[in-house]
Design brief:
The chain is α/β, with parallel strands linked by helices. The protein has 12 helices and 9 strands. 31% of the residues are buried. It binds adenosine-5'-triphosphate. InterPro entries: Rossmann-like_a/b/a_fold, TilS/TtcA_N, tRNA_Ile_lys_synt, tRNA_Ile_lys_synt_N, tRNA_Ile_lys_synt_subst-bd.
């Protein structure tokens, strides 16, 4: 049997065989991606769980969640709806995402998410546009415990075709057609144009490049972790290749308790090593300042 049903079942089967989780939960939004995933998990791991998070932001959101829960129960999953309170900084989307991931985080086992190849391509383009460093272009991992993404190599179109073929009714998130979201415009305008110009599966090419970049980043990160020198001694780190030096600095600053270090912060700290002309300190999030004194870097709370 060929086609989207076989493709998606194979992807899910392969993921489960590789990871061998002791407990499986599927995170279900009610869209085609996560419903196709839930249908496969119900077939391979009957009795696994499904969680539908109700953000309670739209009228009727509870009905959407209940319908998805009923569908999951039909697939053989033990389904429950988690209603969350969405509040906090950064706008409703960011707050909803934070509340959702907090509600989905399991006590044990893995939580499967329905991210597809197209989500990966959009994530890579978003990272490129932000210019926030190689990690953000390296995209999502298929397995980043406790999160699993069995459909990361499968197109969104295949998940839709899966649901159509299996007679699964799909909920269309109204946000997915709202052009005020950057991701929606990447999906509906930029990626089709790139495909038209470049031809030959641009989403797959982006995802493949992201995977290679991830391997490179992982290799550099482990070299940085194994760095045997004194990461505060300027002489010890000045001769390191810049990609390695910045990683050594990043992990030192994180160990010192500095939260959310952006690429531009890191660049400025690195300048204290590579192009120091007696300049003052670099101010970092969380009220920290890094200074250079007597051939060493020192990080301390801002006074
Ligand atoms: N309300 C929800 N309840 C449970 N799971 C959800 C919900 N919304 C999204 N998910 C899960 O997250 C996956 C990705 O969905 P979506 O891309 O909308 O979320 P996201 O987490 O904001 O994405 P990203 O991680 O790329 O920012 C879905 O396939 C589904 O598995």
């Amino acid at each position: 049997m060929n086609g989207p049903v076989a493709e998606i079942r194979t992807a899910v089967r392969r993921f489960l065989d590789e990871v061998r989780p002791d407990a499986v939960t599927v995170a279900v939004s009610g869209g085609a991606d996560s419903l196709a995933l839930a249908a496969c998990v119900g077939r391979f791991v009957p009795g696994a769980s499904a969680v539908i998070v109700d953000h309670q932001l739209q009228l009727g959101s509870g009905d959407v969640a209940l319908r998805a829960a009923r569908q999951c129960a039909e697939f053989g999953l033990v389904a429950r709806v988690e209603a969350v309170e969405v509040s906090g900084p950064g706008g409703p989307e960011a707050a909803a995402r934070k509340a959702r991931y907090a509600a989905l985080r399991p006590a044990s086992g893995v939580v499967l998410l329905g991210h597809t190849l197209d989500d990966q391509a959009e994530t890579v383009l978003l990272g490129l546009g932000r210019g926030s460093g190689p990690r953000s272009i390296a995209g999502m991992r298929a397995f980043d415990p406790p999160w699993g993404r069995p459909l990361l190599g499968v197109s969104r179109a295949a998940t839709r075709a899966f649901c159509a073929e299996q007679g699964i009714e799909v909920w269309e998130d109204p946000h997915n057609s709202d052009p005020s979201f950057t991701r929606v415009r990447l999906r509906s305008e930029v990626l089709p144009l790139l495909e038209d110009v470049l031809q030959g599966g641009v989403a797959s090419s982006l995802a493949r490049t992201a995977a290679q970049l991830r391997e490179d980043c992982d290799a550099l990160d482990s070299l940085a972790a194994a760095f045997g020198g004194d990461c505060c001694a300027v002489d010890d780190i000045a001769e390191l290749p810049v990609a390695l030096r910045r990683r050594v600095l990043r992990s030192w600053l994180i160990d010192e308790g500095v939260p959310e270090l952006s690429d531009s912060h890191l660049r400025r700290v690195d300048a204290l090593v590579s192009e120091w002309r007696g300049q003052g300190g670099v101010w970092l999030p969380g009220g920290f300042v890094v200074r250079r004194a007597h051939g060493r870097l020192v990080v301390e709370p801002q006074s």
